[in-house]
Amino acid sequence: MFPLRDHNPSGRTPYVTYALIVVNVVVFLGYAGLMSQPEALYAFYDRYAMIPARLSEGSGYHTLLTSMFLHGGFMHIAGNMLFLWIFGDNMEDEMGHWGFLGFYLVSGVVAGVAHLIAGPGSLVPTVGASGAIAGVMGGYLLLFPRARVDILIIFIVFFKVFPVPAWLMLGLWFALQLVNGVGADPTTGGVAYWAHAGGFIAGLVLTLPVFARLGGPAFWNRTRGRPPHPEAKYRLSRSRVPSVGRRR
Are 109 and 64 contacting, i.e. CB atoms less than 8 angstroms apart? Predict the structure, then answer.
């Protein structure tokens, strides 16, 4: 299940969202050449990735921030930037540019702390913007629970795009992080499920002041959980490739 876009246009240019995407991509390209050199890559991660055991010993606190801008491969960064592009602009629209930047960074740090609590003795380097982006998703769920999100469903050879309410897509995503987190061992590597869950909860909590400013439950009653402006409508353009009839 992959989100492709939402039907929730933003009212201002999301400069911070765009800048975060650019910074993440530039940083990744800056060390992507190390992917074929395991020793050099590990030395790089040893300096900038978050290693829970090191933080437990009282050092490496800067990696709570630097690890947010590192990724473990092309698909890792592509997936994260897709989620940020879909949900970040609307959160920036409501919070303002600087407010959103602070929100993003704090969500990422809280996500790192959640991962640290889940496995304080882990020696596995942790990288990725997923925790911060999970915070964006948590805030989005609070403000726009019924905004429509187009998702791509892939089942073996069948695939189709479905519009679903944000609460369904984001709620299911969060539930999967909790379920998978219970059965995962954070000391052996893999997906940092508790970082995702921690970032999501942090984002939801940090969005409460914005929710209150908009009117709290009255905002939901007024908008019915939908975007407080006309939803974007998408239409597939007609193909310009000429059709060829079948010979009999």
Answer: yes
